[in-house]
Amino acid sequence: MDSIRNLPEEQPVLRNYSEELAKIIRSGISPRALKDRLSDYHQRDIAEVLEELTPAERKKLYGILDSDELSGVFEFVDHPYVYIDELNIRKKVDILSCMDPDKAIACLREMPREQREMLIDLMDEGSRRDIAMVDAFDEDEVGSIMTTNYIVIQRGSTIKGAMADLISQAAENDNISTIYVTEKDAYYGAIDLKDLIISRENSNLEDIIATSYPYLYAREQIEDCLERIKDYSEDSIPVLSSDNKLLGVVTSQSIVQVVDEELGDDYAKLGGLTAEEDLNEPTIQSIRKRLPWLLILMVLGMVVSGVVGLFEGIMAQLTIIVSFQSLILDMAGNVGTQSLAVTIRVLMDETLTGRQKLELVCKEGRIGLLNGLILGAASCGVVGLYIMLFKAKTAAFAFGISGCIGVALLLAMAVSSIVGTCVPLLFKKLGVDPAVASGPLITTINDLVAVVVYYGLAAVVLIDMFHLG
């Protein structure tokens, strides 16, 4: 047994699907054989290989796959218009009609206006209606990410009737894991596909309808209900109008995409950007995103520099304290950024009470104080020995300076923790995205706090201790 445990573990070799697909597409096999081979791969993998293919190879692929299959492939592409533009008009219309409305809208918005209007006019009435409905919502509203790809049955149907409706609608709508029930167009409840399948024909359909199934309203803000959507962990959640009519559903795929975009946007804001950037974004647009925050931070930086200038006297008499300024400022900034990250994560819970927010501030303050106590004591000892041994100063002088540094570090870290927590809470209270309380902003504020604490303490304590001034 021991010999088996000691055998080296073999690392699994992951298949390179893009490489496999490229070889298959470039092979000389017949179109029928090629279609059969492609059916073994996920649509996302086919989407990944598009960039590696030549226009001629992509044209070959377009001829093999039908519109429904291609629409599924293009839904995994960041900018599908690049590839859709290589198709003829008829195929473009068919593919956009097969796409979920939100995906089709995103693609249409990348097109020139004249082409967009022409393609919409050529679509069937149902596709035009679905696209117009979803397009009527703002991009930050739930309705903008819903799809009309779902199964719906009427209340009062039988098990046999519900199965017949499922089979007839499944040809057009493949989102079948949950079947939605309406009563006179109003949303009534939902049925799990498994419950419908295992029900006996003479059972009562009403017994398997979940009337308390979660739902969203189309005009709700995505950010406000994101945590609620994730908590339910359903494959799809119905989206209703203000009068409780079923408009569409939000799928788990859309939820994952929205969460990813929210995290990317928050990460960008933590870096002092107004929105997330990508590699294809024009330089001027990136400058416009970054410049406003940089101007604000520059003004705050000037304030910090002005405050430092107030302590020129103490710095001129005790120049050694300037050497340890970065230690205080860096640690204050680091602690503040940690508290900011924790607070933004906690604020994703919209049900947070005032008492819980106060507890969060107290907790972060305690953490900052205790960490400051530990690091302040450590820095006091290390810096004191450094000054005494390497700067050839007396023990009183060395540990007087290091004591001031230790206390300043303690106070700066405690205050910075509270600042890093209170600023996003204040922004949230004012209705501003708390992620706007970005890392650079918190760091600059904490620099100001650290400078005042450090040099103020030095001016009050060290001047009298060493009879300066």
Can you give a write-up of this model?
This protein has about 475 residues and is mainly α. The protein is built from 21 helices and 6 strands.
Annotate the secondary structure layout.
Elements: H1 2-5, H2 17-26, H3 31-38, H4 43-49, H5 55-64, H6 67-74, H7 81-84, H8 89-98, H9 101-108, H10 113-122, H11 125-135, E1 151-154, H12 159-170, E2 178-183, E3 186-192, H13 193-198, E4 216-217, H14 222-232, E5 236-240, E6 246-251, H15 252-270, H16 283-309, H17 312-317, H18 325-346, H19 354-390, H20 395-429, H21 439-465
Parallel strand pairs: 1-2, 4-5
Antiparallel strand pairs: 2-3, 5-6
Helix pairs in contact: 2-4, 4-6, 6-8, 9-11, 14-15, 16-21, 18-20, 18-21, 19-20, 20-21
Key descriptive features of the protein:
469 residues, mainly alpha, 21 helices, 6 strands, elongated
Query: Portion of residues in helices?
Result: 55-70%
Whole-Å distance between the termini? Answer: 77 Å
Order of helices and strands: HHHHHHHHHHHEHEEHEHEEHHHHHHH
Shape call: elongated
Q: Could you say which structural class the secondary elements and strand pairing correspond to?
A: mainly alpha
Q: How does the major sheet shape up? A: 3 strands, mixed
Strand order of the largest sheet: 1-2-3
User: Count of DSSP E strands?
Assistant: 6
Low-confidence stretches: none
- Rg over alpha carbons: 31 Å
Strand content: 5-15%
Tally of helical segments: 21
**Arithmetic mean pLDDT:** 85
